Amino acid sequence: MKPIAYVWKPAVLALLAGLALGGCSLLPEEKIEAVPTLIEPPPSRAVTYRVERKPIVEELRGLARVAPTLETDMYFKESGRLAVLNVAPGQRVRKGDLLAQLEIGTLEHQLAQAEVDVEIARLRLAATQGAPPIEVQLQELALRKAELTVEQLRSRIDAATLRAPHDGVVQSVRGRVGQIINEYTTLLVVADPAAMEIRMEIRRREDVEKLAREQKALVEVSRDNFVPARVVQITQDPETVGSITPTYFVHIELDDPAASRGLRLGDLLTTRIIVREKENALVIPRAALREFMGRRYVRILDGDARREVDVDVGIITPTEVEILAGLSEGDLVIGQ
Predict the structure, then answer these.
(1) 86 and 178 inside one domain
(2) Residues 234 and 128 in one domain
(3) d(Cα 8, Cα 13) in Å, to the nearest integer?
(4) Residues 103 and 119 in one domain
(5) Within a domain: residue 11?
(6) Helix/strand/coil (H/E/C) assignment for every residue in the chain
(7) Do 65 and 204 reside in the same domain of the chain?
(8) Are residues 84 and 228 both part of a single domain?
(9) C-beta separation of 211 from 157 below 8 A
(10) CA atoms 178, 182, 188, 190: torsion sign
(11) Number of structural domains, the chain?
(12) Is residue 66 part of a domain?
């Protein structure tokens, strides 16, 4: 049997060649990623400051309150239910005015009767003129007994009564009628607005240790209007005596009393106490001072070179530092 001979026509050959070439296009094209261009970082620029001579002031800044120099806490000496309350905060009172009173029942009636008994005893004693000594002595004892009863009743009423100790204004009221009030618990505070001072509260012991009497201060009595003042006294808050974190009061007095016009009790005033100051100090910014394990130093720029220099410092404020040794005026120090 003769083999079958296939005759490939030119059209068929062309078709097969086209399919072969088309099959290659079905494969994914290989992508060649471009190499990124590296951008050089900008050259580092050191922030420098020139050492200069200028005034420097260390201040203790805070809010001070306009407070009365004469202020009295009012409290009862025995517990009881509040029956009378004649005042409210902000009310003016005169010395001796009845402010508040606990329920006292029939004490006032008993006192009236006891005072009558005293008068009767006095009359009986007067009638013993010329009587035997024993009779006179008995009447004297009867009078003394009646007087002691009056004193006891008055003392009980006084312990349950609060009267204004001086002219002033009621600053606060901490109770209401019908409420049980404990003994020696402040119910009212009465202050004399005619005698005012500026009082600054300090809680940090290290700040208190910087203060002394007669230190200069500046008080903002109105917007951006600071007037001169001085420290007259430093006291501890009695309520914090023995506390781990005591509170201290710095009492400040304006140099010109007329500057206090317009101030009211309770006003808060920005106050700056001058702790230390120097007119012609060598000064650098606080940002240029470096500290490490007790060492204080700066980095200075000397041409293109940088080097570290140890320094001795004096006054330090939140923004500036006084240099006592290690630098000269005009040196360039590098900030952090």
Answers:
(1) yes
(2) no
(3) 7
(4) yes
(5) no
(6) CCCCCCCCCHHHHHHHHHHHHHHHCCCCCCCCCCCCCCCCCCCCCCCEEECEEEEEEEEEEEEEEEEECCEEEECCCCCEEEEEECCCCCCEECCCCEEEEECCCCHHHHHHHHHHHHHHHHHHHHCCCCCCHHHHHHHHHHHHHHHHHHHHHHHHHHHCEEECCCCEEEEEECCCCCCEECCCCCCEEEECCCCEEEEEEECCHHHHCCCCCCCEEEEEEECCEEEEEEEEEEEECHHHCCCCCCCEEEEEEECCHHHHCCCCCCCEEEEEEEEEEEEEEEEEEHHHCEEECCEEEEEEEECCEEEEEECEEEEECCCEEEEEECCCCCCEEECC
(7) yes
(8) no
(9) no
(10) positive
(11) 3
(12) yes
Domain containing residue 208: 61-70+192-277
Give pTM, 2 decimals: 0.61
Q: Please, what is the average pLDDT of the chain?
A: 87
CA distance 328 to 316: 18
Domain stop point among 124, 157, 189: 189
pLDDT tens-digit readout, 102-157: 999 999 999 999 999 999 999 999 998 888 999 999 999 999 999 999 999 999 99
Q: What are the pLDDT digits (tens) for 59-83?
A: 999 999 998 888 899 999 889 999 9
User: Is 86 a domain residue?
Assistant: yes
Closest of 27, 45, 8 to residue 335, by C-alpha: 45
**What does the pLDDT average to over 249-260?**
92
Instruction: List the Cα angle 147/153/156 in 5-degree steps.
Output: 140
* CATH number of residue 90's parent domain: 2.40.50.100
Query: Looking at this protein, which amino acid is placed at residue 311?
Result: V
